[in-house]
Amino acid sequence: MARSSRDTLSGEFENIAFLFDSSRKISLDLKFPVDTSYPPSTTVEQIPPYVPLEASVRARCRQIWVPLTAWITSLIATILYSLFIYRVLIVSNPKIGSWIVDASEANLLLSIFSQLYAMLLLFMLQGLLDAMRWTLASRADEGGTSASNFFQLSPGTNWYSVCRLIYNSGFRNSWGLLRLALPFVGLAFGSLLKFQNTFEYHFVSGEPTIDVFAGTLIPDITTLSSIPTSYMAAFFDTWAQQLNNFPRYAKAWSLNDCTGECSSMFLPGGMEIARRVGPFLNRTVLKDGTFENVEAISIESAPGLALRFDPLGEDFKFDIQTECKAYITMGDGMQMCLRQMNDSIAASWRACPTIHTVMKTCNTIKYWGTDPLETKTLMTVYRQNATTIYSRDSLAIQQITKTSEPKIAFVSAPDTRAIWDHIFTPRNKSGDLDYQSINVTLHRLAWKYRTYFEWFPDDDAPVEQLQNFLAVPMQFGVTAMQYTNYTMATPADKRDFTREMVTTATGGKSIQKFVGQIWTSWTFITAGIFIVLSSGSAFWWIITRGNVVPNPSGVIEIDFASKLVGTARQSIKESNPDSDIERYRDMVRDSSQRMDTDSVSLFRAFKRWRVEIEGTEKMEQKELQDGYPSLLKFSAARNQLSADES
């Protein structure tokens, strides 16, 4: 029994799935090449009424209102989120109005907002690609668009089919790669701000604020004569073991080109060394309970010293006779060498070996002090201002922020030698306490050196101890000036501090803030702005064209099927044996014959077809006159039609 036209259309509608083939082309104005076997039509085409541009643009905006709304939302989100990133990460100020964004909150917000922002851009771009494929297919003057590209950009085409479409097109139609890459690019884009981030302390100022003397300076050796040897020995004995790791006084620092075996540290002075501004320097910052009820104290832009230590090669040797000196005590001794190297000093030392301490021959330097020294370093000092945050409870350094660039400072080798002589050489007025301090200090330094140098030769403890020994005068040179000030041991003109040490100490609280890489922040902002602006340009191109995709329902199958239904109705009314629906039937039959093979054969069948859809203005007229939706038309390639006819 012959099937009715309705049954025929129903059966053909069920074969819509076969249209998704890489070798076919789709055009939104699905018209076929002109067949010269039919006489030309004498019908006079009616000119459509004039439609103002503003009304036409508004109508086209309504047709793609979903992705266009996503673009507007993306634009607003880009502006707001970029300002947030600039404030929190680039300016590195976690205070927004009265809201203070600590590290944990910033980490959480950046994680959530970045992923949501990436998802929003992804949704908008997918909608743009969908609208773009229909717009490209509406180019009636260019015969629509490639079926391969049309189905690659469809949200309903899975990733495997997209890859097969690209492969079967010989990689000439590879727009689907963009759609496949969007989720992965969005995931990486949303995680960009979390790359190499850290937490740092941030000071939130409060009350009170007072004037103080703070910071460190190159030591002034004119104060040596006023300081007892026992005091000096005690400082060097204590801090030569741990200064670089002591959180109240020192912090690891970054200097240009200081990598590998080079090390550096910064000495901001310390809360214990800071003094209230006044004629006498015996009033500490914490005296009188001024900062009793605060969590942290910030000392603003005080002078500090950055110390850099570089290794010296094996070929670097000191002149034992002129640059080295031995300090001998009861049953022990150390040999210390110094050389002026421009603004820096090279230093080296060694202790009397264990065998000589047992044999009581350390006082004979020729037995152990003639070979080249192995423990050596080069110290360079830079002056640099910095703001330092201290914990009120532990007085430990929480954060150091530089406020000036480092400038190299001259360190005198003769002055350093004078300091060493004052520590290890008794003077005429030295008492028993001074002698005992000298013996204890030399023995403790020598014992630690021997232990690591002889029994743990791979450990850098002897070099680290030498570096600390060189750093002690830099850290406590201000302490020596304070001692001579409040004891009035020096003339009046030597008692006042230099004005560069005058600064302020402010009470408040410290929080940890989120710190990211500056380049990742700018890259994120720039990429977001570029995506929004470029997609905005694409949307403007779509809505200002003469033909735009008809109103979509949001359901791909329904949108596609509705256009086929319109094509079928129009074909019935025209009763044209070579109409678009007949071409569609040819395509369905062509695809159906390949069902017995696999999807690869189905994709290859797409090479025979193009897809086209009627434009908006023409569609609106037909909808009003005939009551059916826009027409989806399938046309075979011209070379394929010629082959079929032959």
UniProtKB/TrEMBL annotation:
Keywords: Membrane, Transmembrane, Transmembrane helix. The chain crosses the membrane at residues 64-86, 106-129, 519-543. This is Uncharacterized protein. It comes from Clonostachys solani. The lineage of its organism: Eukaryota, Fungi, Dikarya, Ascomycota, Pezizomycotina.
